[in-house]
Amino acid sequence: MDMILSALPYGLLIGVLSIGVYISYKIMNIPDLTVDGSFAFGAVVNGIFCLYGHPVLGLFAGLLAGAIAGMLTGVIHTQLGVSAILSGVLVQTGLISVNVMIPLIPAFEAATSKSTSFAIVQRFGGDTIFFEMARFFGLKGADATKVMSIFVLIAIIVVVIAVLLLFFSTQLGLSIRATGNNEEMVKASSINTKANKVIAFSIANGIVGFAGSLYVQYLHSYSEGIGLGMLVTALASIIIGETLFGSRRLFAGFTIVVAGSLIYRVIYAFAIRNGGANGIKLFSSVIVVAFIAFSVIRKKLKEKKEKSNS
Fold it and tell me: Distance between CA atoms of 296 and 110, rounded to whole angstroms?
């Protein structure tokens, strides 16, 4: 039970990340490899705001940072004719250097009062939204803050899903969904599909950067490799959710992704407790392959059953 409770906040954090990846991967049907970079970019930018005591502004700054990264990927893909995969790789690779250089600016070093190296985990003394909410409700202690963090993350996920549902029900949102479903048909309707892709990339990576901001505030620390493997983690959550609960309409899709994230994190925590952390990246990849294989086998069995009935 303790393992599940400890895994819950991390699962919710991954849920926010997975919602962003869901937009590009499922709604737009475009593989976006910007995610690892935009997650770390949002985390680093947010960390600076937290150091100066502005955790709420830090969340929006992280969201904006991720959106800028996604916009760059979209522009490279649509305007320069580079494939979506290569565009994401180019932006992600560039962000590796950017994410290392940002903490070296004088303002950041002045706030930390020391030279910052991403080679090790750095803890900052800035405030976070979780501490602020705990203080607001008069809660004290690490356990109380952890419980408050869970409620805050649930509320944030509800708001994010509600905003996305409202957006994707607008004319622009429906146009973006149509672009992902059938781009050629949308082009025939004289709709600018390139602009739709750039907007979709921006929204998706904006949420990813927002997730990075929340992640750093919850951990109260950051490291050089904070974004590594986040794309695989999000894909694992999406695949687990859809394999267990099925692929459905937009609202159910977002909800299923969060459920998949929680299940993934519980499995992840169980693997760490029993096998250590050394092979956890390999474990994540194996989980993705296993659930994909399970989904394919189930689909083939269903098709075979339908043929035998007919």
Answer: 54
Is 173 inside a domain boundary?
yes
Give Cα 247 distance to the centre of its chain.
19
| Domain count of the fold of the chain | 1
66 domain-assigned: yes
* Structure-block tokens of residue 165: 């549902």
Q: Domain range spanning residue 200? A: 2-228
> Residues 42, 255: contact at Cβ < 8 Å?
no
Q: Is 6 exposed, middle or buried (CB count within 10 Å of its CB: 0-12, 13-18, 19+)? A: middle
Which amino acid, residue 70?
A: G
Model confidence pLDDT, tens digit, residues 156-176: 999 999 999 999 999 999 999
Compute the distance between CA of residue 206 and CA of residue 190 in angstroms, rounded to an integer. Answer: 27
| Chain centre to alpha carbon of residue 79 | 25
pLDDT-based confidence at residue 120 (cuts at 50, 70, 90): very low
| Angle 7-161-177 from CA coordinates, rounded to 5° | 125
259 to each of 12, 92, 119, 249, how far by Cα in Å? 9, 27, 33, 15
Within-domain flag for 240: no
For residues 211 and 9, the answer to whether their CB atoms sit within 8 Å is no
Q: Return the number of other C-beta atoms located less than 10 Å from residue 32's C-beta.
A: 28
What is the rounded CA–CA span in Å between residue 9 and residue 211?
A: 12
